[in-house]
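Exam revision sheet. Question 4 asks you to relate a sequence to its structure. Input first:
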Amino acid sequence: MILVVAGTAPSGCHTNPKMLQTGKYDEEKTRETVAAVKETVAESKVKGTIYETELFSILVPDGWITEELSAEDFAGAGAAEGSVGVWITKDKDSMILSVLLDIPDAATFSKEMIEGNIELLNGTALGEVTMLGIKFFGESHTSDGDYQTVYYGDRNGDVVIISMVGKDHENNVEIKAMLDSIKFK
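Answer key, structure tokens:
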């Protein structure tokens, strides 16, 4: 005889070993998961176009303006020809994504740039952070009245720079969507 029971089980009970053992589920954890899913859905609903370079692509939300950055913009950093970036702005918020090619010892360069920002701009060290499969060094500071977070990381000998600017950029859904959309080629 086969017994089939129809119904709805609490979220997570099929994969939660504790739920399988006790028959109870963690209501607080379920609320956190639902909140995270709602945030992810909200971010995925950001409309825009994809900005493409030879080295990366990034979402540009509707209403934001782009300015292309080239190797000439990074001449002081010793970046090779073919280095590219994009500055994406809306009002006082912005996102800058750059890839500097052929930087000798890109990991040391990245760490030294962040240490320099901390000293020069009275920044707060964020330490090492892994995003997009890259280990970054990061810091936050206020410059010219604008709150900013900057990350430098080594991607196979090239330096990736991500800079986010805005009073509340950590919680800006459009900036988060841009960050989540970055794809390297």
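Marking note for examiners. The helical segments are 17-22, 27-44, 106-121, 173-181.
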